[in-house]
Amino acid sequence: MIAALILREVRRGLTGSAWLAVAFFLVVAALIPFAVGPDAALLGRVGHGGLWIAALTAALLPVERLIEPDRADGVLDQLSLRGVAEEAIGATKIVGHWLSFGPLLLLATLPAALLLGLDGPTLARSLVALAIGTPGLAALAVAVAALTAGLARAGALAGLLLLPLSVPLLIFGAAASGAGGSAFALEGAVSLLLVAGAPFVAGAAIRAART
Amino acid sequence: MTLLALDCVTCRRGGRLLFEGLDLALAAGEGVRLAGPNGTGKSSLLRLAAGLLDPTIGTVTRTVTGTLADEGIALDRERRLGDALGFWTAARCLEPAVEAFGLDDLLAVPVRLLSTGQLRRARLARVMASGAPLWLLDEPLNGLDDDGVARLDRAIAAHRAGGGAVLAASHVVLAGDWRTLELPQ
């Protein structure tokens, strides 16, 4: 059942909003040179930060389709009737969501780096930092999706919840992309904390949303 | 063997008392129809029996797995009906259920294109295919045509003959031998 759930999540991601999120990531990355100007030296200094802003906004995009459709359609109820724990549902959603969006985002980082004028070492560091950070982003997205499922104006509320909570990841992720070193360890710690905690937050939220 | 037992169950939803001190035992082969006016807690009782809600007071004991047919269709709308049903069950359990509800010709049709009545049948086929001994049905006759109703009656009769039990909330009398539990206003 767990494997089937992960597979279902990946399929729904790839046939739906995963591409949209990646396209959004590229669009935001393309906008940054327009905002700060085409000065290559300046772009080289702020580019990796822009990459993270783009990744954050892209992570926000699919939040509304992660939990709410399954809640409204009774899929969560049926899974619960089969004895699947709500925490396990949260965990499979995180794995499935990351698989459908993480690798694509890493791939899209290559053209984004070109748009932002990142040099080779910065690009390499950014790829590693995003590989470490995107599971944390996926976990955060699923937890926030579960917390806002069924609420009116859930999309706007999800943004207000997710963006502040992602600040530690943003700080250490962007630092790791820029300078590397110990920031990688701190980013990894934050990402791990999010991945470990999010299934429990999502599970409790799914139970609380049941009427 | 008792599949489901509610012992002195009280349910309060949204600050309103729906029912209190309710006892119900459902043995293998039995069928109980929940009746009563709108808003008396028929659907809530089904969700209590499914374990999706906790009773305010009292205990709910379920000795077997249950399956619920309520408003939620629980089938992926973008997939073909056969694949969507297949997510929940093995292919060998699926075939008799699909046949019982006359869905053979619809297996290749995406769920989102099915009509209301066809979705109702698909929902009941999902219940039957789940293999769970306890069926919890919320207004199962809604949206079904005469043929659908006859198919459901046959499916329920076969399920009960095979040792299953059915708890159905319905304001319409169902065919066969049912115990009726009237929820008070």
The general outline of chain A is: elongated
CA gyration radius of chain B, whole angstroms:
16 Å
The helical percent of chain A reads: over 70%
Can you give the helix content of chain B as a percent range? Answer: 25-40%
Task: Report the C-alpha radius of gyration of chain A, rounded.
Answer: 17 Å
**DSSP summary: helix tally of chain B:** 5
What's the oligomerization state? heterodimer
How many strand elements of chain B? 8
Strand content of chain A: under 5%
Largest sheet of chain A: none
Give the strand order of the largest sheet of chain B, numbering strands 1, 2, ... along the chain. Answer: 5-6-7-3-8
Poorly predicted tracts of residues of chain A: none
Distance between the termini of chain A: 25 Å
The percent range for strand residues of chain B is 25-35%
The structural class of chain A is: mainly alpha
Quick structural gist:
The complex is a heterodimer of chains A (211) and B (185). Chain A has 211 residues and is mostly helical.
